[in-house]
Batch of 2 targets.
Target 1
Amino acid sequence: MTGAPMGLGGTRLIGTGSATPDGILTNADLEKILDTSDEWIQQRTGIKQRRVVDQTKGESTVSICCDALEDAIKNTGVDPDDIDLIICATCTQQMSCPSVACRAAERIGATRAAAFDLAAACSGFVYALNTADSLIRLGRYKTIAVIGGDAMSTVMDYNDRSVSILFGDAAGAAILTQDENPERGSIKQIMGADGRGWECLYLPRKAIDVPECDKDNPIELGMLRMNGREVFKFAVKKFQHVIEQTLSEAGIGIDDVAQLICHQSNLRIIESAREKLGIEKDRVYVNIDRVGNSSAGSIGLCLDELNQAGRIKEGDLILLAAFGGGMTWASSLWRV
């Protein structure tokens, strides 16, 4: 849990990008393969459709993360040779080695950049953004590209209603660089985790990874498993708490925040936090209805859509907040 380091420069967000695959999986499509309905899904999640990669065309976590970074480079005009580090937040790597970040560096020709992946599930983009901000403030790196992206459809068992209705595929990217103003960038950030809840949301690759309490789960290995009731309880409580804690420790009121950018997990969770915080709908961005929950891609995609729409202006305070498997949570109060 840290604020902006004293006596050092700040971090400037110079641009964003994003990518969503063309494939669309609607609630009507799910009605054909699951015991569910469009009304049931919308009432419980707020989702109408989700974007999905087409693996037969070579689409993947790598492809959408690379597309998002290329979009950010196009939008900023940054020379790939000037990027010192690429951090990619994802939990759906096709390979544990090489990293998605290394594949992205190869795609854009950033041959000088260091690169690594970061795994914090749905909190990943905020974790990566906070890490990049801290490294820039310390003077270790000048320009860092941050990507958050997941192809969640590749780890969905579409025989399981509780999980498969929620998730979709997307990626978002941001490019950060040094700024002489220490009050620019992440002026307050929180990152936390409680590993005791890992069994509530996990992705086992081998039988040995499955805890005794979940041995009878029919979902096949390599697919995401979730205790929806426990995750919902955790999220409703932790989401509001981390937002309130961030604002309190920064000495900032919710009315000072231009945009609250929440992880797009479930519309009911977002609405619960919004109502308890007393913030207007137009200051809490929502796109879960048309893209679903894209895990680490969620907040980066929201950030880019807001930025491209001109709804984030220089000098604005924006608050990013997320929670995810692990269980993890993170926030970043950012002066643009």
Note: The chain has ten helices and 14 strands.
Target 2
Amino acid sequence: MGLHTCKAHELRPRLERGEVGAEELTRAVLGHLDATQPAINAFISIDPEGALAQARSVDQRRARGESLGPLAGIPVALKDLICVAGGRTTCGSRILENFVAPYDATAVAKLRAADAVLIGKTNMDEFAMGSSTENSHFGPTRNPHDPQRVPGGSSGGSAAAVAAHQTILALGSDTGGSVRQPAGYCGVVGLKPTYGRVSRYGLVAYASSLDQIGPLTKDVRDAALLLGVIAGHDPRDATSANRPVPDCEGALSQGVKGLKVGLAREHFGAGLDKEIRQAIEAAAGRLEKEGAQLVEVSLPVAGHPDYCIGAYYLIAVAEASANLARYDGVRYGYRAPEAHNLQELYHRTRSQGFGPEVKRRIMLGTYALSAGYYDAFYRKAQQVRTLIRQDFERAFAACGVLLSPVAPTTAFGLGEQLEDPLQMYLNDIYTVSVNLAGLPGISVPAGLSRDGLPIGAQLLAAPFGEETLLCAAQVLEQTTLN
């Protein structure tokens, strides 16, 4: 097995001892990426020269005996809505195809401070609007486990890149499951931190009250390592939580003895594939065998598809309508040619620059916010959001973590759901309520289907409960592998 298949926590001591050089590791990753990119299309842009320069700098500083960061020499890929100074940030859209970010996102600045090697930007559903990474101006990403299937979305490029060993670590963003669902489809670990745990400064907004940057990694320990690097208060983000960053790596060895694991009856109803139900029930049994106590809980609003999906898609599209109003052909991004007046410039730029799914959501959001409909739709969705948060508060009064499926099925075929938006939205039935409540959640591989496709198990914790969440995830991962 080559260096590109290793995990970050395995590589770190080898790099520190000088057994492996950062440039050697980076060349191994870039070589594999170059060979596999045409088949998977996980990346929008790759920066081999910049990455190798960063890696050489790490090797030179190590040789001089300088102190280095916790990710020194480790290659990291970034979803292409996270700004990197001097590099393209496209959001998978024609309208930003040639946009060059003038500054680093806070998460990127933290990666640089940790001496990570930034190798490129990954493919995504346009402006993070999708569940399959098919809604990209740069073509769909394919699932490494079956190239005829989707990798999930909207962080499908990051998930596929990790699963295909095209990078060691990756960052995605999660608005309604966009880290956890592709992680489940691709058989990797995807962590959505508590809202406010990781700064959103430099993350191009889809829905500002829901978006959160999160790690996609090969195992739980790497997710804990990466979270420890990117988390923390940021005064440039008004929603950033001023709380200390926990020692998530240190918490991994605590085990689950005595931990109450909640199973919500609403997460095991109609529509859940039989194989996935069996895999989640088996995961619960493994946790119980390790000393956890299983308890039944209820999420009558958060677990009801009509309520959680409806509230999510009203709030998200309303915020998207406001956030994407800035793309008008005047300030930056694509500008339609031959417009004769300002109204025509707006119309042509947005019609030509945005794809069909983004336009659909902008129109839905604008309608939901319009005079006469605001109270009936947006305000009502916010009231349901409060009920969803209260559902989880009651559940976590009875348990330490919740266990559920990540998605109702395994990865579906490319093109299979593109003409049925509602069916596409229902892939997020177990994930969107988590963003509405601002909770941390993680997807962990829980086995394979008869067709050899990954099945993900989702664990949830109370706000800022990442230590408990990661500890339970570590036990679930280890018992699954064994």
Note: The mean pLDDT is 97.
